[in-house]
Specification:
Layout: E1 3-6, E2 9-16, E3 19-26, H1 29-48, H2 55-69, H3 72-89, H4 99-106, H5 112-131, H6 159-168, H7 175-185, H8 189-193, E4 200-201, E5 206-211, E6 220-225, H9 228-239, E7 249-250, E8 255-256, H10 263-271, H11 279-292, H12 298-305, H13 324-335
Antiparallel strand pairs: 1-2, 2-3, 4-5, 5-6, 7-8
Length: 341
């Protein structure tokens, strides 16, 4: 029942387009019914005539959401894509943007891989406009197919280069500790840079990494066993800690490190390694080494890497029956003895 009387006044309430609407204070039931009918007509008319909203406004609101939801690197990439699209197309009403506008912009991208990456970020904005803001009824990105492309082969440094890298890393600073931690965890560098002491359990010899490489951007824990080498590094750092919070502390800023952009380049130059490689190549080396040299199972390696799907690691992994713990112990056997603590 949408009409009823409270005291000596009538009121109405109804649900439309997923929201509740209502009003009170009418002297008669007829007045309430007439206003309810008029209210429904206004809502129907508004739904049939969507508001004109420019792309820049929607893009700005989407980026506010993206800044909260995604890692900083992902947010900056999305901001770059939207800025580039606006510079190419101009600030049009979002409901006027068609697949033709999108194709015109995406056709300027230098590679098919870049085309697909920009298409994905633009598609997310139009999905936000459709599902959240409800200012468009169709996502024009759906009319554009992905471009075929061959992924670049990931460079996996040889073992001798990894050993050179360890040897030139300065043990008097955090350089060697950081490189060894990456090797003995198979982690992404951001997972280690955000590592807190509460994530390191020296008694149980476990470490919890937090990863956000998931759909939705939620941080999820990856709990691993600390092999002897990693335990020794963490114990030494705890005994000589400069921060009660961060394992890798930046004394210049009084906070954790958020990036170490120059570290790997400098280490590779000192080691005479050519070509120079980055932190993520270490992660690929560890996975490849465990698969090829130690015959650790892809399930165990996938667990260390934090992959939910085995297909993610299947490109270079092989089958066996070793556990994640044994995998980390194998790393300690081959790349141990470098920690001076």
């Amino acid at each position: 029942m949408t009409l009823w009387k409270e005291g000596d006044k009538w009121r109405y309430r109804f649900q439309m387009y997923g929201d509740r609407h209502g009003k009170s204070g009418f002297r008669t039931k007829r007045e309430a019914a007439e206003e309810e009918a008029a209210h429904r007509r206004r809502l129907k008319k508004q739904a049939q005539t969507p508001a004109v909203t420019d792309f820049r406004l929607i893009a700005s609101e989407y980026l506010d959401l993206a800044e909260r939801k995604f890692a900083k690197k992902t947010y900056k990439q999305k901001a770059f894509v939207l800025k580039s699209f606006l510079a190419h197309t101009g600030n049009l009403p979002i409901e006027d943007i068609t697949a033709s506008h999108l194709h015109s912009y995406l056709n300027t991208r230098p590679t098919n891989n870049n085309y697909n990456a920009h298409r994905k970020d633009l598609c997310a904005v139009f999905t936000f406009a459709k599902r959240v803001k409800r200012v468009i009824r169709y996502n024009p990105c759906w009319d554009l197919d992905k471009m075929p492309h061959t992924p670049d082969e990931k460079y996996i440094p040889p073992e001798e280069d990894i050993l050179k890298l360890i040897m030139v890393a300065d043990p008097a600073t955090d350089e060697r500790d950081l490189i060894l931690t990456l090797i003995h965890t198979a982690a992404r560098v951001d997972e280690i840079l955000r590592l807190k002491w509460q994530d390191v359990n020296l008694t149980k010899r476990t470490m919890t990494r937090w990863t956000r490489k998931r759909k939705g951007g939620t941080y999820e824990p990856i709990k691993i066993h600390m092999n002897n080498e990693l335990y020794s590094i963490m114990k030494k750092r705890w005994e000589n800690r400069e921060s009660e919070t961060w394992v890798y502390y930046n004394e210049k800023t009084g906070d954790r490190f958020y990036h170490r952009p120059k570290l790997m380049k400098g280490l590779c130059k000192r080691a005479g390694i050519d070509p120079a490689f980055g932190f993520h190549n270490i992660r690929h080396f560890v996975a490849s080494y465990l698969a090829d040299a130690e015959k650790i199972s892809k399930k165990a390696i996938g667990g260390l890497l934090g992959h939910k799907a085995l297909q993610t690691t299947e490109i270079y992994l092989h089958s066996s029956d070793k556990s994640e713990t044994e995998a980390l112990d194998r790393l300690a056997q081959r790349f141990g003895g470098f920690n001076s603590g």
